[in-house]
Design a protein that fits this description.
By secondary structure, the protein is α+β, with helices and mostly antiparallel strands. The protein has 2 domains: about 200 residues, Nucleotide cyclase, GGDEF domain (Alpha-Beta Plaits, 2-Layer Sandwich); about 110 residues, Thrombin, subunit H (Beta Barrel), CATH 2.40.10. The strands form 2 sheets. Strands 1, 2, 3, 4, 5, 6, 7, 8, 9 and 10 form a 10-stranded mixed sheet that branches. Strands 11-13-14-17-16-15 form a 6-stranded antiparallel β-barrel.
Length: about 350
């Protein structure tokens, strides 16, 4: 866990050295100083918070949606070169808003607001941080296009509640962290997010309802919970002039089609073996409108596949979620949004849509 004060301290040290010597510190020297600052910060946290305490914390989980599918088509070096700038950019925004990075988990980040220190505006800062992170992802994707790299999308889940906070470990290794059901709930909420989306719990919304514009509550079934959970999508922060770019990014050209769909339900991260069938009635870059005999409820996760004529592609290993359910002329139709698409398949879908647009 690295405190948000470390970058400020490092910047002050660099300024002092530049004023005294007229030269900047080398990258190696900067890294050495940062390591010392982190060690000092952790020791201070251990000394001040050695006993676990109950405190209210806002937990943010941010994850790159579909990154596993993208990484599977790249070299290890290429994955690191693409992932590292994302984590650096997100870290800078988190520190700017006073968040504390609890841990990196591959392509995921866990961030705390209210630990180690609690402030009155913890939830407001978490909201602003999440929206700015989504804007930063949009800017990174602009740079990716120039380098012919695939787009990356982040899903962010946020929950607020009481957790036990303190130091876990021994003299050999220890870290300040938080544990409790509210942390697990934040992870569950993040798992429901779509690309570029920020979802928050009702507990978080109650603490920032005067600060953010959010969607109507959506009920989702959470593993281990008897009752459904209410979540809301953050749309904007009016006072800061910030709007989640997802609302614009998910719009794309859509074309009418008649394609046979094969789908499997995904429950608890496990793809069920039974294959069901449906019909795709329209398709865009990021999703489908599908007719199926048994319409699945909102937020149901599915693995799908279908054949794309004209571009000689079998679109497979696509994951996504049901975002809406509607009835039309006695038919059950679902809106399905992609969460993970192999890069090569995504390119074929876009080409297919473009060819149909040209033919129209």
């Amino acid at each position: 866990m690295k405190s948000h004060s470390i970058p400020k301290t490092l910047a002050r040290i660099r300024k002092i050295v530049q004023n005294e010597t007229g030269q900047d510190l080398s990258r190696h020297a900067l890294r050495e100083i940062e390591i010392e600052l982190v060690a000092t910060d952790v020791k201070k946290a251990n000394d001040e918070h050695s006993d676990f305490q109950l405190r209210e914390v806002t937990i943010m989980l941010a994850d790159l949606r579909g990154f596993t599918a993208i990484a599977a088509e790249m070299s290890t070096v290429g994955v690191i070169q693409m992932l590292n700038p994302v984590l650096i950019s997100m870290s800078e925004i988190i520190f700017k808003h006073g968040g504390t990075i609890d841990k990196f988990m591959g392509d995921s980040i866990m961030v705390l607001f209210g630990a180690i220190n609690t402030r009155d505006d913890d939830v407001a800062r978490a909201m602003a941080c999440a929206v700015e992170m989504q804007h930063a992802m949009q800017q990174l994707n602009t740079a990716h296009k120039q380098k012919n790299l695939p787009d990356l999308y982040m899903g962010i889940g946020i929950n607020t509640g009481n957790v036990m906070a303190g130091v876990l470990g021994s003299d050999v290794y220890s870290e300040y962290t938080v544990i409790g059901d509210e942390v697990n709930l934040a992870a569950r909420i993040e798992a429901f997010t779509l690309r570029g989306q920020v979802l928050i719990s009702e507990a978080t919304y109650e603490r920032c309802r005067d600060f953010v514009e959010a969607s109507e509550p959506m009920s989702v079934h959470v593993k281990g919970k008897a009752q459904t959970l209410c979540v809301r999508e953050v749309l904007s922060i009016p006072t800061k002039g910030l709007r989640v770019p997802r609302q614009d990014g998910r719009r794309s050209h859509r074309v009418l089609v008649e394609l046979a769909l094969r789908y499997q339900l995904v429950v608890g991260g496990i793809v069920l073996p039974e294959v069901h069938h449906g019909t795709v009635h329209d398709i865009g870059y990021h999703g489908l409108l599908v007719e199926m005999a048994n319409a699945q409820p909102t937020m149901t996760e599915m693995k799908i596949s279908f054949d794309l004529p004209h571009v000689s592609c079998s679109a497979e290993n696509i994951y996504g979620k049901v975002v809406n359910v509607k009835s039309r002329d006695g038919r059950k139709l679902i809106g399905f949004e992609f969460t993970s698409v192999p890069t090569s398949v995504s390119a074929k879908i876009q080409l297919f849509v473009q060819l149909l647009l040209l033919s129209e």
